[in-house]
Design brief:
Number of domains: 3
CATH architecture of the largest domain: 3-Layer(aba) Sandwich
CATH class of the largest domain: Alpha Beta
Oligomer: single chain
Strand content: 15-25%
Helix content: 40-55%
CATH superfamily of the largest domain: Periplasmic binding protein-like II
Shape: globular
Length: 289
């Protein structure tokens, strides 16, 4: 390989891998689908290897494609860090961010801290609510971007996939109670739906002991030995432990954590935060294929 790797080609390549399709990637990089296809042809010519296996409408990476995506992410991270160091002090403004409070508590503190360190003139206005209400607020123009749990069949830029687990206190045996007491969000969040459906399938008796809109309240109930709750694995706190199927708690589906953005033109501050979230979340854990 003699030609240099073009960062624009690598960015489009990463967008295809992350979104799972050329069409969604084209929307993300603001190009036509035909332009994206041409870019990937150029990238394959540059590396001298096929990068994609196409089977009907589905897309998978070849072995060489899997190798290249790791290099691409590292190159793009360094590229963006260099640009932000020399050119981004002028980026300023307010970005209205939505997130469920369990993600705000566990996933986002370090991510936001690194962003503010790079962009000290950007003000983040964070709203915590359910994924459903955050989507509504986004559609109403009340938010600029949101980190949400995507429901099955719901479109969005997937940041990562992770297990949903049954959490109990590591110091108590409330999970042995019959019926088992549950702590649940008091709206129809997907974790609540999955948890109740799973217990019904195995005829496990339960009662709803506590409901709240706040993950702080749910986690306090779990840590105090009052109840068991279904949560994303990343939301586990010290003092909690995961219940296994052999303990009578059936497996739960994988959660897709996604990034949704306003349809309005993104400000420079919003664009930088969106890029930072995409990069940081995907480096933290593998994204779904």
């Amino acid at each position: 390989m003699t030609a240099p790797l073009d960062s624009d080609l690598l960015r489009t390549f990463a967008a295809i891998v992350d979104s799972g399709s050329f069409t969604r990637a084209a929307e993300h990089v603001h190009r036509t689908q035909s332009a994206v296809s041409m870019q990937m042809k150029r990238l394959e010519e540059t590396v001298g290897k096929p990068l994609f296996v196409r089977d009907g409408r589905s897309i998978a990476l070849t072995h060489d494609g899997e190798k290249l995506i790791g290099y691409a992410r590292r190159i793009l991270r360094l590229h963006d860090e260099a640009l932000s160091h020399f050119a981004e002090p002028e980026v300023a403004g307010t970005v209205r961010v939505g997130t469920p409070d369990d993600y705000a508590l566990t996933l986002l503190p370090a991510l936001f801290a690194r962003f503010i360190e790079s962009y000290p003139r950007v003000h983040l206005e964070v709203t915590c609510d359910s994924s459903e209400r955050l989507q509504e607020a986004l559609n109403a123009g009340e938010l600029d971007l949101s980190i949400v749990t995507l429901r099955p069949g719901e479109d969005g830029v997937v940041l990562r996939e992770e297990p949903v687990v049954w959490a109990t206190s590591a110091q108590h045996d409330v999970h042995l109670a019959d019926p088992v007491p549950l702590a649940l969000f008091n709206y129809q969040c997907i974790f609540r739906i999955w948890g109740l459906e799973a217990l019904d399938r195995v005829d496990r008796d339960y009662r709803v002991a506590l409901t709240s809109r706040s993950y702080a309240a749910l986690s306090a109930a779990v840590l105090a030995g009052m109840a068991v709750t279904p949560i994303a694995e990343s939301s586990l706190l010290p003092g909690m432990r995961v219940l296994r199927p052999e303990e009578g708690y059936p497996p739960l589906p994988m959660a897709r954590i996604g990034l949704a953005e306003s349809r309005n033109a993104a400000s420079p501050a919003q664009a930088r935060l969106s890029e930072h979230i995409l990069r940081s979340m995907r480096e933290r854990a593998p994204v779904a294929a």
